[in-house]
Amino acid sequence: MARGGLSTEAVTAAGAALVDREGIEALSMSRLAGDLGVRPPSLYNHVDGLEPLVRLVALAALADLAEPCREALMNRTGGEAVHAFAAAYRAWAMAHPGTYPLTQVARPGDVEWEAAADRLLQPLLEVLGSPDDPEESIHAVRALRSAVHGFVALELTGGFGLEVPTDTSFARMVETVLTGLRTFV
Question: Does the pLDDT at position 183 exceed 70?
């Protein structure tokens, strides 16, 4: 990429691509500058350092994850919506093995982060919502998210070695969570 093509968005996207290819441990200002064909000081015109870059990569990943999950909920309700959300979430995570873990760290007080997290979770809160008890909706979303994340984390690290289709196991896990949630929401 030519020096003139650098922007905060381009640096963030290149950082995310590197993290997805090689993991977060591969991300450094020097390595990223090399990938972009510039000297490391050039990056500092667009990001304030490695820690702020990691935040930007995580924020972009969270926003990117929200899109297919929101689309999956469109025109669906109940169990069908939850299965579609979970499948979209899983597919995104599997396609983004390096940046996915960055979406899992809460950043209280970070207004941009909280807005991106709300964009991801608010539609699911509405699907799993309990008008009589909004707190119960949060518990339901946490239960579903924990189950889906646990499955995805195991899948990403090669934790399922048996010759049984993981898609079937995933669908059954989501249905099991839904069955449990139906007693509460």
Answer: no
Tell me the pLDDT tens digit for each residue of 1-29.
445 679 999 999 999 999 999 999 999 99
The angle formed by the CA atoms of residues 142, 146 and 152, to the nearest 5 degrees, is 145
H or E, element range at 167: helix 166-181
Cα–Cα distance between 141 and 159 in angstroms, integer?
24
> Using an 8 Å Cβ cutoff, are 156 and 91 in contact?
no
What SS3 class is residue 86? helix
Number of H helices, E strands in the chain: 8, 0
Residue written as token pair 């399922």: 160
Do residues 107 and 113 lie in contact, with contact meaning Cβ atoms separated by under 8 Å?
yes
Q: What are phi and psi of 136, to 5 degrees?
A: -65, -35
Query: Which pTM was predicted?
Result: 0.92
